[in-house]
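FAQ: What does the model actually see?

It sees only this:
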Amino acid sequence: MNEVPTLHPGRWWHPLPDGRIQCDLCPRDCQLHEGQRGACFVRRMINGQMQLTTYGRSSGFCIDPIEKKPLNHFYPGSAILSFGTAGCNLACKFCQNWDISRSKDMDRLMDSASPQAIANAAKRHGADAVAYTYNDPVIFAEYAIDTALACREQGIRNVAVTAGYIHRQPAREFFAAMDAANVDLKAFTETFYRQLCVGHLQPVLDTLAFIHHETDCWLEITTLLIPGHNDNPAEINALAAWVMKELGPDVPLHFSAFHPDWKMAELPPTPSSTLTQARRIAQDAGLRYVFTGNLHDTEGGTTRCPTCKAPLIIRDWYAIDRYDLTAEGRCPHCQTAIAGRFGTTLGRNGQAFGPHRIPVRLSP
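And it is asked to produce this:
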């Protein structure tokens, strides 16, 4: 049976003297009365306990290319089973999945599946990994961790697509279950986080440093560039300089194009020239693997050898047009090791999954 209870005991909380409980999952530190939900909407005090109200339910499942997450240096060309739930612990005015992340309607959770059922579905559909995405998996960490453990038993990898807004102790447990993560570094100013996300910058920087230095989880970073808000060259330079200093030159950084949506629908899309300039700034700061996304830009999607500059992986959006790495993940021209996690061949049996999107239904 796929059906599992929607309510599930929550972790990472403690009781308060006045009868409330405090959630210790993320920096919001929500303090809840009986029956009250946290800012994420999915964690609720019921009978004096924390409950996760979306365990075992999803807004949908889909087989995607790994490049869509986006992950460019984590088993390129592979297929990944993606799913999310509902809610979010940030409130980004520019959210491009707002119908899911800002939803307070549990009816959006159309599909039901246990962790074991998800692992079985990934195996059955030929997916090499499962992605916890669409909304932030931090808020359904119990479900994500249980699913990740079930996946690992079947040799399925696990990928978190997250804003990284999480406290250190749950982060230790969450990222220990993940093989890769793409973290949204939404901007590089506290003002942006406070005014447009209702959050703070420093916890995200702390999470990035933690993942890179204290876990085995492969890390890539994405920044959505929004015209007039976080696309100033000085801010981009500061962001790239921080990545270079605190994480090093080998963490891939993606600059992604904004499309008008949610509460910022009046803004124009990000010009391709803005992304090209941002990529150049980050490269000049010393970062070796900088990409552009959400637009057709072959050069911006290409992995080049940092030593001899040969094009090793040429991408057009989510399609891979050329793959030229050795089985050991080295440049075949100068033998430089390329940072990342690579298989002995591209994708499955030397073939990339390609720019497909295949919806999957798990419930009967």
